[in-house]
Design goal:
single chain; about 170 residues; alpha+beta; six-stranded mixed beta sheet; 8 strands; about 30% helix; elongated
Length: about 170
Amino acid sequence: MRSKSMELMLRIREYIESYFERYSSTPTVREIAGAMKIAVSSAHRYLVAMAEKDMVFYENGTLSTPKIKRMNPAVSPAAIVGSIPCGSPEEKEAQVEEYLPLSVSFFGKGDFYALRASGSSMVDAQIDDGDLVIIRQEQATAYRPGRRDRRCPHRRGQEHAEAALI
């Protein structure tokens, strides 16, 4: 068996990590082979050799690297459920448009959803028309006049939502 090129192993690892940063997933063996201009079987043999050197890991069928593991890629899904007017209150029916993966390391764990801002009355809070507003659903807290550190897009029953300004 011929020895594997360390230079190619490093290029493969770099490709896997840059692919992950761009797409939040790792490439297939076929994609790695295409990017490195090698046969799929050669790419597979390189990945096996890299796994033996702890340059890559396979866990539950998912490819990873030490750098990707440090990135803590855990995510929570948040449904984009429409838009919210910035200004005059307006009741709207929620309809899921799509799901948005939210990084647990940035947002924490919880129940989230997202709304698209509509209008320009929130520009002082750095929320522009068309921005996505990420909202964490929480139990209601007592209203305190003068408190300005929370923005609440809706209140119903015993729950309220806290908007995250990102």
